[in-house]
Amino acid sequence: MILPILAYGHPLLRKECQLIEQNSDDLQNLISNMWETMYNAEGVGLAAPQVGVNKKIFIIDANPLFSEDHEISDFEKLNSKKVFINPEITLINNDECSFNEGCLSIPDIRAEIKRPNTIRVNYYDENFNDNSKVFEGLLARVILHENDHINGVLFTDKISSFKRKIIEKKLDKIKKGKIETDYKMSFL
Q1: Which candidate among 26, 48, 171, 186 keeps its CA 20 to 30 Å from the CA of 3?
Q2: CA geometry: angle at 14 spanning 12 and 16, to 5°?
Q3: 24 falls within a domain
Q4: Catalytic residue at 168?
Q5: So what's the pLDDT on residue 72?
Q6: What CATH number is associated with residue 86?
Q7: Average pLDDT for residues 31-42, to the nearest whole number?
């Protein structure tokens, strides 16, 4: 089922999410709905709070970020579509790179965001198998963006106050629901 995506300004997007217990009711249904919602909105990642669920889970499918001329490594192929339950970022190197990020909860706004290029993530997959993996480049970026969501952080928090002032009116329009999207959204 396609769920509405919460828009910028919704208080749930600012809350730190709760851990998921192994035998949580309806977890597989939530994951299925999140995949359907993300693909419907043409996103590459989606966190539970974006669909109104205060739980530490997000999904990614970074395949659309890789251009056709980009040769995808076996690691990227295997790791670009994943479910992350109760993730913990345990290793971040000091090498940072910038990328023009956007967010399904903040449509029509993009900004250059600096993030670490290499991370290690401890997490459970959709079957509650324990995992610990290193991710680099675009995969690391998407994971960090979605991990921010489950900690109540938005990419707009990472831009300068000057740039934030420039987009303030657009953010206000999103908050008030005065935007159009090709996907279902929920406003305050």
Answers
A1: 171
A2: 90
A3: yes
A4: no
A5: 55
A6: 3.90.45.10
A7: 97
pLDDT at 68: 55
- pLDDT confidence of residue 92: 82
Residue 85's alpha-carbon distances to 4, 20, 55, 160, 179, in angstroms, are 21, 7, 9, 31, 32
Say how many C-beta atoms besides its own lie within 10 A of residue 88's C-beta: 12
Distance CA 172, CA 67 (A): 33
Q: Quickly list DSSP for 81-95.
A: EEEEEEEEEEEE-S-
CA distance 1 to 13: 21
CB 116 within 8 A of CB 144: yes
Of 76, 101, 136, 146, the active-site residue reads: 146
The number of folded domains in the chain is 1
Range of the structural domain that residue 17 is part of: 5-182
- Residue tagged 């290499």 (tokens): 118
Q: Would residue 188 count as lying in a domain?
A: no
